[in-house]
From TrEMBL:
Positions of the Peptidase M24 domain: 81-360
CDD domains on file: Prolidase (cd01087)
Entry superkingdom: Eukaryota
Pfam family, one: Peptidase_M24
Native source organism of the sequence: Aegilops tauschii
Sample GO molecular function, one term: hydrolase activity
InterPro entries (UniProt xref): Creatin/AminoP/Spt16_N, Creatinase/aminopeptidase-like, Pept_M24, X-Pro_dipept-like
Keywords in alphabetical order: Hydrolase, Manganese, Metal-binding
Listed cofactors: Mn(2+)
Protein name: Xaa-Pro dipeptidase
């Protein structure tokens, strides 16, 4: 099944390497070892070691950038796995939308997602892929790609909130950031909605601002587009929406120059996705990380390439610490309608996250969660709440 021709014990490794190289006339072997920094996590990979390796010449610099770059774009097989993880996760998110009600705890929402995602599924798009073994296997996802974020109320403004121990209150916003993993390939999806299925006006204002940013970014994605420009586009759309509601005032260009968008969206727009939820390759050698607020949180500033899978996750948060800093800055403070801001201080936040595949001419959204508010009323999408 794995097409392995020979198996040896680890303590035979040095001898086998020498024999193989001698047999093919290569002389003393040069060992290429995987060692380098993951620019997303900051961690370094640990190179392989075995008894007798000190007798070989080694190269610690060549392999890491090559393998990292191989992970930046996805093959059709990899894309199929990511798509399946997205299909399962999207269904599980809808199940949480159906089940959520006041009085539940946040960890019950996490349990609902995990339970639904792990359920066996015998119908799958995998039937179109001849490389999949023809056996009846359950296609549920037993594991999540990362710690689930089930945040309600003010907890929703905490980016990587993980306690999930709060109580769901009637009318609060819920921010559900959860993604299942299939055969080691990740999904990473965020949905935001009111816990009772009905938007207040303030909730609708913020949600619509983020949804517009999310949709506009996806509509502009194609090979050659700079990711930093997509981040700025998301910031601009959110600022424009907030200005329409008189939450902020002034010239949008001046706001962008003062990095006002980072007050509401301090996180980066998205990240590469694959074997890791935060896949490596965001900052290859020679590509520097920006230093400005908001932009320094970007996990990549690369140009988009065909075959990339990247998350699109704009958000709008009302974070006391950042609002306080803005108020203390005389120039930044002048852009804010502080009377209106006070109405949103306990709001929390909204984030909408989809997993997007870059195609030759544009992109394809792999995530299939309800996003649009019900146009016939104030309720959430009928798909979820019926």
């Amino acid at each position: 099944m794995y097409k392995v021709d020979s198996v040896f014990y680890v303590d035979e490794l040095a001898q086998v390497l020498r024999c193989e190289c001698s047999e093919h006339g290569h002389g003393e072997p040069l060992l290429f070892l995987l060692y380098g920094q993951n620019t997303d996590s900051g961690n370094y990979s640990r190179p392989a070691s075995f008894e007798g390796m000190d007798k070989f010449d080694t190269d610690l610099s060549t392999l890491h950038p090559i393998l990292t770059e191989c992970r930046v774009t996805k093959s059709d097989m990899e894309l199929a796995l990511i798509q399946h993880a997205n299909d399962v996760s999207s269904e599980a998110h809808v199940e949480v939308m159906r089940k959520i009600k006041p009085g539940m705890t946040e960890n019950q929402l996490e349990s609902t997602f995990r339970c639904h995602a792990s359920m066996p599924r015998f119908r799958s798009k995998f039937q179109d892929f001849p490389w999949l073994p023809r056996i009846s296997v359950p296609l549920g996802c037993r594991r999540c790609s990362y710690t689930c974020v089930c945040a309600t109320g003010q907890n929703s403004s905490i980016l990587h909130y993980g306690q999930n121990d709060g109580t769901v209150n009637d009318g609060d916003m819920a921010l559900m950031d959860m993604g299942a993993e299939y055969n080691f390939y990740a999904s990473d999806i965020t949905c935001s909605y009111p816990t009772n299925g009905k938007f207040t006006r303030n909730q609708a204002v913020v949600y619509n601002a983020v949804l517009k940013a999310h949709n506009d970014v996806i509509s502009h994605m194609r090979p050659g587009v700079k990711w930093i420009d997509m981040h700025k586009l998301a910031e601009r759309r959110i600022l424009e929406s907030l200005k329409e509601e008189d939450i902020i005032r002034g010239d949008i260009g001046d706001m962008m120059d003062r990095r006002l968008g980072a007050v509401f969206m301090p996180h980066g727009l998205g990240h590469l996705l694959g074997i890791d939820a935060h896949d490596p390759g965001g900052y290859p050698e020679g590509l520097e990380r920006p230093e400005e607020p908001g932009l320094r949180s970007l996990r990549t500033t690369r140009e988009l390439k065909q075959g990339m899978v990247i998350t699109v996750e704009p958000g709008c948060d009302f974070i006391d610490a950042l609002l306080g800093q803005a108020r203390d800055d005389p120039i930044c403070s002048s852009f804010f309608n502080w009377e209106k801001i006070e109405m949103y201080r306990s709001f929390g936040g909204v984030r909408i996250e989809s997993n997007v595949y870059v195609t030759a001419q544009g992109c394809k959204n792999l995530t299939n969660c309800p996003r649009e508010r019900n146009r016939s009323g104030n309720g959430w999408c009928a798909l979820a709440f019926t």
